[in-house]
Write a structure and sequence with these properties.
Helices cover 2% and strands 43% of the residues. The protein is mostly beta strands. The strands form 8 sheets. The chain has a 4-stranded antiparallel sheet, with no helix packed on it. A 4-stranded antiparallel sheet has the order 2-3-4-5, with no helix packed on it. Strands 6-7-8-9 form a 4-stranded antiparallel sheet, with no helix packed on it.
Length: 373
């Protein structure tokens, strides 16, 4: 079954010998410029939110928010299903500008780089707009919808499309540099490390692609379709699959070194993992947040919510912040998984939190963007 069918139904130097050792202190810039925070997709925020966050403001986007916001220089950037990319003042929640994408913005999270905001829409167009005023810079049209989030590295924008390609575009002009064809929709966001893009696929393949020229270096058989984006550190990548498993892939041996699954309930993993303190932490459609020991693949702890967890967790200050389709945003202790805080929004949260400047920002399916601090 392809990801297309399933989905319709619903700056630190890594240590290759110590998987999962990245900590929040290794982040330097207090910003959240893209999906999962950095090109490696580690899901670690540089900021320290309050112990008991309070709601500071909310913003009505007008339609569902499925993707993570970006936060850069005191501005929040968020897309919504009504075809709008909005810039919002982080301090006050007041809108600064709006840009009409023309197509609904689904799961594609904005990326901010080089004074521009990049976001994909469900009509298959990648948009680049000025971060300061929301004026259009360029657009690039793919042949099918974009749910992948853009990643910008060294002047190159990487974006996946349901037309089966991973594209590399010049960030300044939008001119295509190369395109790699896969055997299925490219839903996931690529993780970047040492000039290589790693992308999990709806064709049961995990690919390593050299960014400089688009050369595919190798593939690893995942044994299942994958909508989640991988997190990469050193010689390991970690990703959940639609076969109800989480895989640890050895990038040198080019094979899975462990496979984790819930022994009691078998549901897909749609959430992308955070990697911190030797733990791989992600949500499952079994309604559970799972923390897995990165070295061994054994369960460290679990936390059960009231509905499936498609939201990708973010780690900040020793806590895991994650949304659930039960309408709650949770803060869990990284070490134990014990709940430390929750906020009920009244609407499903499939978006991932964005954390910067001691603020937590997350959107809901009913189109409300919340800011806590």
């Amino acid at each position: 079954m392809s990801c297309l069918v399933v989905l319709a139904a619903v700056v630190a130097v890594p240590s290759p010998n110590a998987p999962g050792t990245l900590t929040a202190q290794s982040q330097i810039v207090d910003a959240w410029p893209q999906f999962r925070g950095t090109p490696r997709l580690a899901g670690i925020a540089p900021s320290l939110p309050p112990a008991a966050p309070k709601l500071l403001w909310s913003y009505e986007a007008g339609d569902a928010i499925e993707s993570s916001a970006a936060i850069v220089d005191g501005v929040v950037y968020v897309g919504s299903y009504n075809g709008t990319l909005a810039a919002i003042d982080l301090a006050t929640g007041k809108p600064l500008w709006k840009y009409a994408t023309g197509g609904a913005v689904g799961e594609s999270s904005p990326a901010v780089a080089r004074g521009m905001v990049f976001v994909g829409d469900l009509d298959g167009t990648l948009h680049a707009v000025n971060a300061q005023d929301g004026k259009a810079r360029w657009t690039f049209k793919t042949k099918q919808e974009i749910k992948s989030s853009p990643v910008v590295v060294e002047g190159v924008v990487l974006i996946g499309s349901y037309d089966g390609h991973l594209y590399a575009l010049d960030a300044a002009s939008g001119k295509q540099k190369w395109a790699v064809e896969t055997d299925g929709p490219v839903h996931a966001t690529p993780a970047i490390q040492n000039g290589i893009a790693y992308v999990a696929g709806c064709d049961e393949s995990f690919r390593a692609i050299r960014i400089a020229d688009g050369k595919e270096l190798y593939t690893i058989n995942e044994g299942a379709n994958t909508a989640a984006s991988p997190v990469v550190e050193g010689n390991r990548a970690y990703v959940g699959t639609f076969n109800n498993e989480v895989l640890a892939l050895d990038l040198q041996a080019r094979k899975a070194v462990w496979v984790y699954e819930n022994p009691d309930r078998h549901f897909p993993f749609y959430s992308s993992a955070a990697l911190v303190d030797g733990k791989v932490i992600l949500g499952g459609r079994d309604k559970v947040v799972h923390a897995i020991t990165a070295a061994t693949g054994k369960a460290a702890w679990t936390f059960t919510t009231r509905a499936r967890v498609d939201s990708s967790p973010v780690v900040a200050g020793g806590r895991v912040f994650v949304g659930s389709s039960d309408g709650r945003l949770y803060a869990l202790d990284v070490a134990s998984g014990h709940k430390q805080w929750e906020f009920e929004t009244g609407s499903s949260i499939v978006a991932s939190p964005a954390i910067a400047a001691s603020r937590i920002v997350v959107g809901t399916i009913d189109g409300v963007l919340y800011c806590f601090g």
